[in-house]
Amino acid sequence: MLQPLTARITIISCLLISAFFIGNQIYQYQSNPLRLYSGVWKGSDFVTVNGHQIETEATLIIEPENSHLSVNQTYENVNYTLDANVRPRRVNHESTHIELYNRSVHGLDNFIEATNISVPTQANLLSVNIWRLEEGKLFLQTRLNGIEEPVEMILKIK
Predict the structure, then answer these.
(1) What are the pLDDT digits (tens) for 11-62?
(2) Which of 52, 122, 150, 156 has the smallest set of CB atoms within 10 Å of its CB?
(3) In 3D, which of 68, 130, 142 has the Cα closest to residue 103?
(4) Residue 86: which of 104, 67, 70, 59 has the closest Cα?
(5) CB-CB neighbours of 158 under 10 Å
(6) Is 71 exposed, middle or buried (0-12, 13-18, 19+ CB in 10 A)?
(7) What is the 3-state secondary structure (H, E, C) of 8-29?
(8) What is the DSSP code string of 75-137?
(9) Which of 20-29, 71-80, 123-132 is predicted with the least confidence, judged by mean pLDDT?
């Protein structure tokens, strides 16, 4: 009599534990902010550097294991581009702090020479944060050393 009861309790316990772990995995998948943000996001704004207004356009591609950021800055028909892969550093439901790696800059020397605008060539990216404003809109804020004001723009899903 004791063995069938023990077997039933063991089976029920295994089912409850399995249901807990499966439910937790489904919840983690459904509520993952990176999955919710997946897609191509674009935005533009103006940044003031040494009294010059520079048009800045950003494209952020968010995919589960391969996210990418491209920033193009233009002043009087001269431009340069920063391209980098993106890795989430801290992810939660309100905001995401990301890290850039495999960075490459194209055309910065020509930009500085043609415009005489002193853009810090060795600027360190201090932080990049992303907030979801509403459906279809993200707020991107970057801070660089050497530039006091953060670069902020609203990105819209394309």
Answers:
(1) 888 888 998 889 888 887 777 766 777 888 888 888 777 777 888 888 888 8
(2) 122
(3) 68
(4) 67
(5) 10
(6) buried
(7) HHHHHHHHHHHHHHHHHHHHHH
(8) ETTEEEEEEEEEEEEEE-SSEEEEEEEEEEEESHHHHHHHH-----TT--EEEEEEEEEETTE
(9) 123-132
